[in-house]
Each structure stands twice: as structure tokens, then as C-alpha cells.
Amino acid sequence: MIDMNNPWHKVSVGESAPDVVNGIIEIPQNTRAKYELDKDTGLLKMDRVIYSSMHYPHNYGFIPQTYCDDNDPLDILVLSQISIVPMCLVEAKVIGVMRMLDGGEKDDKIIAVANNDMSVKHFDDISELPEHFIKELRNFFEDYKKLENKTVEVEEFQNALTAKEIIKKSISDYKAKFTS
Q: How many CB atoms lie within 10 A of CB 101?
């Protein structure tokens, strides 16, 4: 039974999806705390403090009313000049995707910009970001679980068009899973 008070199910994906989506932030940038939505209660829980001395380089969360192969909503990284507080709803313009494997399972990360942050809103595609941004992101996700003896492999970064196709599929998969 779906708990309609849970933000995963209660909040819409966004009227302009897949171009601009609602992102619900779980983890603000520059923290070592790994927060995640508790699927049963809809509350935010602290999963762990990440084992390495690294911190999340960008605001991290999920897109509501999406569903992926890992039985979770689709992950999203939201670029902004500020740290966005957990459980904040952010209008996010989709610019790309980081394709990765986490413990051998597909675990895509949509990359977006906060649509109401003028410092990043001008980006339309991941190809416009500085090369160092991609290097930092790859480095964080490949290394932050090493001290837990877990493996993450970043496969590739792809453009906004590919990201939007992934979002469409995750919306369709959500409907098949939860509204059929």
C-alpha cells in the first residue's frame, strides 16, 4: 500500500518533466552525513556518516514519482551556489546524467541545475560544465565507499537528451509499479 504522505509518492515529478523536474534534497552539499528518505515513514533518516573524509560535492536527492532498477526513486544531483537544506523541494533543470554501477547494480545520477539560482540556471547541457567538475564528481563517487570495501564504477557522463529519456523511463516504471 502506498503511503500518500511519503514525499516520494505525494509530490509530483513536475509539470515540465522531463526538462525541469522536482528534486527533493536529502543531502546538502559539503556534508559527510548520508541522509536518505525512509520509504516506510517518509521521514529523513541518517543512514551513516560516510567513512571517508570526503564530503558530498553537490546537493543530492531524488525525483519523486520515479522508480529505478535499484527499487528506489531516481537520484538527482542539483548544482547550486548554496547548500540546500534536506527535504527542500527544488525546481531542477536537467542537464545530463552520470551513468554508474554501485555494487554491480545500475545507479544513474541525473545532473541538474537549480532553476531558481541565476548562478547556474544558464547551463543547458553537461557539456557546458568545466572539465574539472566532471573529474571531481567522478572522483567523489568512485572513492567515497572505498573504506566500506564497496565498489562504485562511474561509466560515463551523458547529455541532457539521454538524461531526459532515463527520467521518462523511470516515470513509466513508477506508474507500472505503483498505479497498476
A: 14
pLDDT tens figures, 123-162: 999 999 999 999 999 989 888 877 788 888 889 999 999 9
Is 34 marked as binding a ligand?
yes
Residues 13, 17: Cα–Cα separation, whole Å: 7
Q: Is 40 annotated as a binding residue?
A: no
In which band, very low, low, confident or very high, does the pLDDT at 1 lie, cut at 50, 70 and 90? low
Q: Is 51 annotated as a binding residue?
A: no
Residue 107 marked in a binding site? yes
Exposed e or buried b per residue across 55-69, where buried means at least 16 C-beta atoms within 10 angstroms of its C-beta: ebbbbbbbbbbbbbe
CB under 8 A, 24+ apart: contacts of 60-63: 60/25, 60/26, 60/27, 60/29, 61/23, 61/24, 61/25, 61/26, 61/27, 61/90, 62/8, 62/23, 62/24, 62/26, 62/37, 63/13, 63/21, 63/22, 63/23, 63/24, 63/110, 63/167, 63/170
Judge whether 99 is annotated as a binding position: no
Range of lowest pLDDT (3-17, 87-101, 119-133): 3-17
